[in-house]
UniProtKB/TrEMBL annotation:
Residues 1-19 form the signal peptide. This is Bifunctional inhibitor/plant lipid transfer protein/seed storage helical domain-containing protein. Coiled coil: none annotated. GO terms for molecular function: lipid binding.
Amino acid sequence: MNTKIASLAILALAILALAQVEVATAVTCNPLQLSPCASAITSGGKPSSACCAKLKEQRPCLCQYMRNPNLQKFIKSPGAKKVSSACHIPYPKC
């Protein structure tokens, strides 16, 4: 009986852990969320911690942004590559 209860508890914990991972990976793609990075991208300056946090959050969306003709000039710019590098976030290969 105790083995069954322990097995159910482990299964319940595993399900909860998987559910939290799924919630953590869900992101709403909104290029305006990258506005803290605008000055660093355009001036080549050091990105703020807020910029790096938003860049990390929006990382799953970067390829979508790269396909947008209105955003390409910013996302594919040398400044954006520098910001990505300074934030230790790999530049996307789409």
